[in-house]
Amino acid sequence: MYFIIFILKKTIRMNALQEIVNMMNENEKKAFIQYLSKKNKRKDTSNTALFNSLKTDDINYKINTLENKKSTDAYHALRKRLYDSMIDFMANRSFENDTSQENAVLRLIVVSRLFFEHKLIKTAFKCLAKAEDIALSIEHFGLLNEIYQTQIQFAHFNLSEPIEKIIEKFKANKKQLEYEEQLNLGYAVLRRELAAIHHEGRIVDFQSLIKNTIETHGISLKQGLTFKSLYQILFIANEYASLNSNFSLIQPFVVKSYRFISKKTDLTDRHLYYHIYILYFVANFYFRNGQFRESLDYLDLMSAELQKQSGKYYQRFCLRYFLLLAFNENYLGHWQKAIEIAEKALSSNKKTDPNDSNDIRLMLIVFYIQQNTGRNAVKEMAKLNHTDSWYEKKMGMDWTIKKCLVEIILHVQQENTELTLSRIKSFKRRYKKYLLTVNEERVVHYLLFIEQYVLKPEIIKTQKFQIEIEDFIVSAQNGPKDIFIMSFLSWLLAKVRRKTTYETTLNLLTAYFPVTNFI
After folding, report:
1. Cα angle 233-235-240, degrees, rounded to a multiple of 5
2. CA atoms within 13 A of residue 307's CA, in its CB half-sphere
3. Separation CA 109–CA 157 (nearest Å)
4. Along the 519 residues of the chain, how does pLDDT read in single tens digits?
5. What CA–CA distance (Å, rounded) separates 282 from 284?
6. Distances (CA, A) of 335 to 281, 287, 367
7. Where are the extended beta strands (E) located within 16-69?
């Protein structure tokens, strides 16, 4: 009996039925029971009883239905019928409760075709005209394609409207639709490939990957933009810039984004999700280029958008907003404010994406290290307690490497010599080949300096070692600009110059990003 209970708990709880029940609120559950009551025949309430057992997770009900094979077969048949009923109910309810403009257009298209069938020609065309106006306002090319096809199909009923005009609109929209489809395909392929790379820890030439994706799917980055297409292009561009540690590469896309948003203010609320994401990408671009005040300007816009539509997308984006906000404040010299933002974000938003929480926690650890508050840093690092392999799959190879480097630096700062050397050894064994393959020798050299310092701390006072580090940092500065790389280098440089890590960081960034004006 206990074995049966164990198996049932493991299998039935997590089946599709239970998952659908879990996503339903109390009003939906009550409405579904009423839906079943109307559907039931001859007072057969077994489906209602099964649904109630799922609501309360009544294990005894399930065991009692499995006492013999006949009951087992009947139970599985009942589950299948209940599953079908739940799908129908949720689909109908979603359609009924959906007040979006897309749904409004769909309804108008459906009812217009019904009117055509009943020869209500004038009314049918009025419905299509209204549907077209709405679809144009939200730039929904797929729905516009359906509208124009319907108008062409029944054009013989409206001889006063030149069919050539309708065909011209249809062809123009078709080009927009094809471009959107090509971009959707390329974007989907790229996202899937990125997910596979992160999951498997594979090494790829990302530059070639993007180039091949764009060429294979015939994507043009010069065509007219929508909020969705701009978001997709910025996503691809952002990944490319991150890989190359050079966000100046995507400046043309950012400029185009700003111009696009400036001209489309009347549509921003209708494309709120993509609008928020675009503002995030632009704010991130300015931050990574050391233009902190410009980044904060876009974060102010992003904050305003997060409050719209009753905070519909707040939980989805809030940690990303706080991440950039804290980063900007920290590198503008407001480290106390930055730490307060990060700490509050982690404590107040526990139901958000775990990946975003990991980003903020790692950032907070860096802030603590910069302020030499090792105890707080150790406390937060202990919460990043999964294996490197786990983080590679969940967060990606580059994030995991940064996390390992931060951990090594923390051990050095806490004077944990044996732990530091052990971590360096495992890091080189796991990542050295990868880093050399992706032309990141500077990380290997950086780690070598740390290892030499840990093995022989007095070396930091020698002129030879100091010159080697200074030359290494000058060489790194000649490469692509990246604020995160500079933060790592600053910790090493602070040891040589016998300054605080935070002071050294701000001084190095001022020299590295001349356009930055610290407050």
Report:
1. 95
2. 5
3. 17
4. 433 333 333 343 346 677 777 777 787 888 888 888 877 765 666 777 777 777 665 545 554 554 444 566 777 778 888 888 877 777 677 666 555 678 889 889 999 998 998 888 999 999 999 999 989 877 888 999 999 999 999 998 888 888 999 999 999 999 888 888 887 887 787 777 766 665 555 555 655 676 677 777 776 655 556 777 778 777 777 776 776 666 766 776 677 777 777 777 777 777 888 889 989 988 988 898 888 999 999 999 999 999 998 888 898 899 999 999 999 999 999 999 999 999 999 998 777 788 899 999 999 999 999 999 989 999 999 999 999 988 988 888 889 999 999 999 999 999 999 999 999 999 999 999 888 887 788 889 999 999 999 999 999 989 999 899 888 888 876 666 678 888 888 998 898 888 999 999 998 888 776 655 444
5. 5
6. 23, 16, 7
7. none
Structure tokens, 131: 């549907």
pTM of the model: 0.68
Structure tokens, 433: 């080949």
Which residues are CB-neighbours of 356 under 8 A, at least 6 positions away?
Answer: 319, 320, 323
The burial class, CB within 10 Å (0-12 / 13-18 / 19+), for 456 is: exposed
